[in-house]
Amino acid sequence: MIPPEILEKVRLIEIRARRLVDDVFSGQYESVFKGRGMEFEEVREYAPGDDIRSIDWNVTARMGQLFVKKHREERELTVMLVVDVSGSLGFGSGEKLKSEVAAELCAILAFSAIRNNDRVGLLTFSDKVLNYIPPKKGRRHGMRVIRDILYPQNDDEGAEDKAVAAKPKGLSGCIRLVPERFKDLLGNALRAQQFEVKTKLSESLSFLNRVLKRRCIVFLVSDFVSSDDFVWDLILTSRRHDLTACIVSDAREHELASVGLLALEDPETGQTTLVDTSNERFRAQFAELRRKEADELRQRLLTSNVEFVTMPTTDDYLAPLVSLFQRRRKRLAVGR
Question: In terms of DSSP bridges, do strands 129-136 and 119-125 run parallel, antiparallel, or are they unpaired?
Answer without folding.
Answer: antiparallel
